[in-house]
Amino acid sequence: MPDVLVAGAGPTGLLAAYELERAGLDVLILERDVRPTTQSKALALQPRSVEVLADRGLLAAIEPYVEARLPAGHFSGIPIDYTDLPTPFPYQLGVEQAHVAAAIEARLRRPVLRGAAVTAVEQDAEGVTVTAGGRRHRAGWLVAADGGHSTVRTLLGAAFPGMPARISLVVADLTLAGKPAGLADDWQLPSTGSGFLLPLSGGRHRAIVGGEEQQRLGRDAPVTADELQRALTDAHGPEIKVGEVLWASRFGDAARQLERYRHGRVLFAGDAAHIHLPIGGQGLNLGLQDAVNLGWKLAAHIRGHAPEGLLDGYHDERHPIAARVLVSTRAQGVLGVPDPDAAAVRAVVTELLAVPEAHRAVALELSGIGIAYPGTTGRATDVPAAPDGRPVLVGASLPAGWAGRVETREGTKPQLVRPDGYVVWTGESDLEAALRRWFGPPSAAKDTVSAAARGTG
Predict the structure, then answer these.
(1) Could you report the per-residue pLDDT of 323-376, keeping only the tens digit for each?
(2) Which end of the chain has a smaller Cβ tally under 10 Å, C or N?
(3) Nearest to 262 by CA among 292, 294, 289, 287
């Protein structure tokens, strides 16, 4: 029996599984689709996500597929400079989500079980039973990373409050039989208005349209080549010719978030926990950060040496981050509305973002570099992650009781670093207190793993 089941083989589910495997746990991913998707979907890795992937040795497999290194992000199309951010990666990577997912999946020990759509979830005091693909699977825990229309969330009846969609847009991967010279030749930051085009690999293009026709059509109406042709002609003129539509989907600006990320032995991550307008390059990155925050905490809980409240600290740390992203993306959506009043607000916001302090604050937020959690003092970009997912102590002697649980390294700068890269001690306070707070009491005080430690408490 695996230690953990993961529902969903998108980047969030895959990275959560990878983090758990690094900690020595057995993980089985259940995925509805029979084969990996080739749809481009998300296209941006923000600097903090690049740091995380590089720290885990995953970036090298992604780099051959990178289309662009953009030295800026954007706030509703308003460029936000990244070049002076305190990171080794002061840019966002333009890369298709499918390549990110493939790089992570290739490093997993256990293959993804595909063609396994979840149809039932039952949990008790000892574990979770998931029916998927007509088979029952049992594990101690379930990570639900099965997307914005999460089946697990629906089956559990988890409250998902928020704002319904008010606008409708279409995203598509397509080929172009013709286009004006100079249009969509290179990667650029998105701009406002319908008809955004971006070149993808293999002669494909990404298109995003959102005109009057998209507002009239229902969410379930099929996206046709004729509809895209009309929208792109309106935006770029008669020279543009749609070839083949490879994938298309309608989306809106709905903003919803789970009230709690933990439901007994089920923990939610990524779009299963929060949805928002895909603007500003936030969604994929928000899910990846959920995964690395959850992975080490769940592993410690299963192994029985997590301090009290650590697993629930996943919700406590990540829920406010996503709530802020929902506010940000809603604001960005309003700034993009083709309305004179919205245009006036946009002009004022553009002027405000020219103020260096405001510009930097938004850059830190969009890039993920500014994320901080209570009790941490920033990121340890100079302390590589332990291969086995343990915390790392640099430049200090490890007190008795934590040997084997914490990796030690020499160094002149004392630091205690969580497995997700955040610093929790810098030599200016009680090291034992920090170890107890984040990584549990010393082993002498916990000779065996109690049932309570492995349970739902």
Answers:
(1) 999 999 999 999 988 889 999 999 999 999 999 999 999 999 999 999 999 999
(2) N
(3) 294
